[in-house]
Amino acid sequence: MENAMGKNNEQSRKELERSIKPSGAYLDSLTDFADLLGTIRQAENAAKELLDETAPALRAKTPAVKDSGQPDKNLADAGQTPGQARQDDKMQAQGADQDTSAGPAADTAEKGPTLEELLEKLDALVGLENIKQNVKSIINYVKIRKLREENDLPNPPLSLHMVFIGNPGTGKTTVARILSELYRAIGVLSKGQLVEVDRSGLVAGFVGQTAIKTSDVVNSALGGILFIDEAYSLAPDIGSGNDFGREAIETLLKLMEDNRSDLIVIVAGYSEPMERFITSNPGLESRFNRYFLFEDYNSGELYAIFDSMCKKSEYILTDDARDFAVGHFREIYDSREENFGNARHVRNFFENIVAVHSDRVSALEGHTREDLTTVILDDLERAAIM
Question: All domains of the chain, ordered by start, with CATH?
């Protein structure tokens, strides 16, 4: 009987050993299994000691992204293996490097010029005193609206769509570009880009395509200003029959309403044609209620624009050449026609001078710095008749 019981105990012990043996290993007894557990613990302790010794060197090579005042956490407490922890530290350090290198540039790109810088840029423009005052009034209006909102006061509906009226070269596009940045700086627009377009950029040649083309242009201007030059060309003359310009206007009006919180549209052109354009559709009259009149530059302002071009390109006029320029701009202003070119005429005159000056200096055998920068009376006289 005792022999039978002994055999049964021995058999049970062997079955127990087989059930607790790790996969891939063979143990002859529970004693061997205990020895194996001890070896594993020793290996774990050795690995931990090695990690503690090498951790400072690893942190020196790959700094962790964390508060320097916080102590290092034990990897075992964090539930990470050494390999996982090193990989996480590497990824964090790479992210920190990217943030550090790209951060300042990204902030600059997002913020852009400040309100004060943009106002200085506006003030630096020659003439346009009434335009400058109108722009500043709008900025003050927007500021007060925000203050009223902060004090739980109601505000009337806000519409910043504008009509720019004036001859070519009176600074309409330049002011629109500054306005787009100003509105971004005060939080009216999210991006502040200026998208310039005319009839050809909105109207297509086939039925149904104009709406698509106009929608694409408006979408590109979201967050900024859409500037439509010679907008009157979208409104056909009475009796002209069907015109795709009407489709562009109707599409534009709908998109202006759908995106009124982050889109400003400026339409520009000559005075009388723009009046016809605005009255061609009731929707235009209701949405465009701000009119900016860009008057012609006077002779002194024309010369100031010319002088700034010369200084920017480092051209120096002799005294008699300067006197000629002053008289030239007085003459063209006094004799200007209805659609006077203003700054466009100044630029054309300046470019003609540069061309004449280049021909004259290139014929010289030697070229001194003074030759390359000095503009004489004969240069201006020749340029004036080109």
Answer: 2-109 (no CATH), 115-294 (3.40.50.300), 299-384 (1.10.8.60)
Residues 100-119: what's their mean pLDDT? 62
Nearest CA-CA partner of 229 in 145, 172, 272, 181: 172
**Burial category of 9 from C-beta neighbours within 10 Å (exposed 0-12, middle 13-18, buried 19 and up):** exposed
Q: Which two tokens stand for residue 267?
A: 């339409």
Residue type, 294: F
Q: What is the pLDDT of residue 74?
A: 41
CB-based contacts of 50, cutoff 8 Å, min separation 6: none
Which SS3 state, helix, strand or coil, does residue 164 take?
strand
- Helix segments in 67-81, DSSP class H: 75-78
- Strands of 162-166's sheet in order across: 194-197, 225-229, 264-269, 162-166, 290-294
From residue 369, alpha-carbon distances to 32, 234, 308, 361, 374 in Å are 96, 51, 20, 11, 9
Q: Is the pLDDT of residue 50 over 90?
A: no
Q: Which residue has the tokens 């400072």?
A: 56
Distances (CA, A) of 356 to 133, 351, 382: 40, 9, 7
Higher-confidence residue: 365 or 78? 365
